Each structure stands twice: as structure tokens, then as C-alpha cells.
Amino acid sequence: MSKAFVREDDMPDESPPMARASPLPPGAKNYLTAAGAKRLRAEHDRLLQEERPRLANRDDKESRQELQKLDQRIRYLAGSLHSAEVVSPLDLSPGVVRFGATVTVRETQGAESQYRLVGVDEADPARNEVSWLSPLAQALLNARLGQKVGLTTPKGRKELEIVRIAYES
Q1: Bridge partner list, 32
Q2: Of 76, 90, 107, 108, which one's alpha carbon is 20 to 30 angstroms from that of 146?
Q3: Are residues 80 and 93 in the same domain?
Q4: Are 159 and 149 in the same domain?
Q5: Are 150 and 156 in contact (CB under 8 A)?
Q6: Residue 63's CATH number
Q7: pLDDT digits (tens, 9 = 90+) for 146-158
Q8: Given CA atoms 147, 25, 87, 77 in this order, what sign does their dihedral have?
Q9: Number of structural domains, the chain?
Q10: Which pLDDT does position 68 carry in this prediction?
């Protein structure tokens, strides 16, 4: 039968969106900070308890597509939370950069920046939260207060001095 004689509503829905692949390399642990785990759990619960019922009650093509995307996000969050290892910074040495640390660095020109090393699913560049797998975090991990570390960027090599290390309690 020609598509000219079929209503658009009778057409099968488009295939569901591709599942988002984990940003973790094979074998890497899914570390989360306690605050990050709390945020992801809150997002999962809100999507499941508020957003999903709202979309499920509507019966139009756009809502069905949104519902597919929402279900994908819910599944991703559930999987991430299930595989997560929440790291507590309470047992860590305050003078060494470890996962969960907020690190203040000084560039050679004197400008200071602050970064927090977090899990891949909670990284947020707008909040200066960087994945522990990022090149910046890899340069900072295990460094000590006062130590200078090298970082290669697209603009060239930088030297960063660690001027402060803090952990949330």
C-alpha cells in the first residue's frame, strides 16, 4: 500500500533513541561522591515519580518520543547508581589530591582556578566539577600541596601549582 493512503498517526513510531553508552572505559570503577550520588538519585526519583506519569498520561507523538528519551535517562541513572561506588573523603589525607577533592591551582601567570574531582556521571564543567578520568584530573591526582604538575592542553603545556586541597565532610 502506498504511504499516500496511510494516516500519519497509523505509522509506527520511530525507533527508540540509542542508549547512551557509559563514558567509563572497560574495567574502570564508577566512582561517585556522596553529593553526586544524592543528586543522581534525586534526579532518578523525580523523573520516575513526576515526569514519567505526566508524559504517560498524554497521547500524542511528541509525548511518546519524550517518554522514550525519559525512559532511557531513567534506565541510565538506575544503572549508574547500581554500579556506583560512593567514595567517602573522610579517611583521606588532606595534603594529597584524591577523588572528591576540591583543588585550587595557580598558573604560572598567577591566575587561580578551582576544580572538584568527581565521577564521570556527575561531572559538570559549569560548576568546575571535572571527571576523575579527565586529563586535568589525571594531572592533579596524587599530587601534594605546593607541588607543581604539568598539563598538556590544545594551547600547549601549562604548569599548575597546587595551592589548596579541600574535601567535603
Answers
A1: 86
A2: 90
A3: no
A4: yes
A5: no
A6: 1.10.287.180
A7: 999 999 988 889 9
A8: positive
A9: 2
A10: 93
Give the number of residues written for the chain.
169
Q: What is the pTM of this model?
A: 0.78
Maximum C-alpha span of the chain: 74
- Containing structural domain, residue 78: 29-87
87, 103, 135: which is the final residue of a domain? 87
What phi, psi does 88 have (nearest 5°)?
-95, 125
Distance CA 72, CA 133 (A): 24
**Contact indicator for 125, 68 with CB cutoff of 8 Å:** no
How much is the CA Rg of the chain, to the nearest whole Å? Answer: 22
Pairing of strands 156-166, 148-153: antiparallel
* Inside any domain, residue 1: no
Q: Collapse the DSSP code of 65 into the 3-class scheme (helix H, G, I; strand E, B; otherwise coil) and give the result.
A: helix
Domain edge (last residue) among 87, 112, 128: 87
Please check the confidence at residue 21 and state whether its pLDDT lies above 80: no
